[in-house]
Amino acid sequence: MARKNQKAPWEEEEEIIWVSKTEMKRDMEELQKLGEELVELKPSVLEKFPLSEDLAEAIKDAQRFKNEARRRQLQYIGKLMRFEDPEPLQAALDKVRNKHSQATAQLHKLEQLRERVVEQGDDAINEVMELYPDADRQRLRQLARQASKEQQAGKPAKAYREIFQILKALNDAQL
Q1: CA dihedral for 5, 9, 11, 17, sign (positive or negative)
Q2: Which of 6, 22, 124, 145 has its CA 20 to 30 A from that of 99?
Q3: Short-list 126, 135, 131, 123, CA closest to 163
Q4: CA 109: distance to chain centroid?
Q5: What is the DSSP letter of 15?
Q6: Is-contact 122 141, C-beta < 8 A?
Q7: Helix 86-120 to helix 137-153 angle, to the nearest 10 degrees?
Q8: What is the largest CA-CA distance in the chain?
Q9: Contact criterion met (CB below 8 Å) for 134 and 173
Q10: What pLDDT, in 10s, does the model give residues 86-137?
C-alpha cells in the first residue's frame, strides 16, 4: 500500500530551490531601492512606466511626503514591488538614464567640434558642412575669427558661445 505523500513513479519531481533568508532580504532591498528611484522621477516621466494603479498611487504619495512618512511609504512601495515584475521597470529606468547620458555625450561632441572650428578654421568648418549641409559657412567663418580674436584679447567669449548655439541648433534640426 502506497503512502499518501509519495508520488507515482511516472510523475516528475519538482525541483526545490532553497533560498536563504539573507538572499530574500537582499532581493527585497533591491526592490525597495528600485522603488526609491521611481519616486525620484518626475511625474511626466513616470507616466511612461508600466506601473500598476496601486504602485503609481503609492509613488505619488511618497513624492508628497517628508521625513518619517516618506520612509514608511518607501517601505510600502518595496512591499508592492514584490508583486510587480521588476524587469520592465528596470528596463524603462535604464532607458531614462541612458537618454540623459546620450544627450550629455552629444553635447560633449558638439563642444569638441566647436573647439576645432575655432582652432583649425576652414578645415573644421568643412567638416561641419559635411555633417550639417544646412550650415552657413560664411557665418561660421566670421564667428571662428571673432572667437579667436576674443580669446587672444581676453574678452568674454560671445562668439565662442554663439558657435556652440549654431552647432546645437543644427544638430537638433537634424534629429
Answers
A1: positive
A2: 124
A3: 135
A4: 18
A5: P
A6: yes
A7: 80
A8: 103
A9: yes
A10: 788 877 787 777 777 777 888 888 888 888 888 888 888 888 888 888 888 8
| Residues with Cβ within 8 Å of residue 59, at least 6 apart in sequence | 35, 38, 39, 46, 51, 77
Q: Which candidate, 173, 102, 100, places its Cα nearest to that of 135?
A: 173
Residues 110 and 92 sit within 8 Å (Cβ to Cβ): no
Label residues 44-78 b or e (16+ Cβ within 10 Å = b).
Answer: eebeebebeeebbebbeebbeeeeeebeebbebbb
Q: Is the pTM of this model over 0.85?
A: no
Report whether 100 contacts 42 (CB < 8 A). Answer: no
| Contact status, residue 174 vs residue 132, Cβ threshold 8 Å | yes
Strands (E), 2-70: none
C-alpha cell at 170: 543644427
How far apart CA 135 and CA 132 sit, in angstroms, is 6
Residues in the chain: 175
CA angle 110, 112, 114 (to 5 degrees): 70
Indicate if the pLDDT at residue 54 is higher than 80: yes
Measured distance CA(152)–CA(62) in Å, rounded: 54
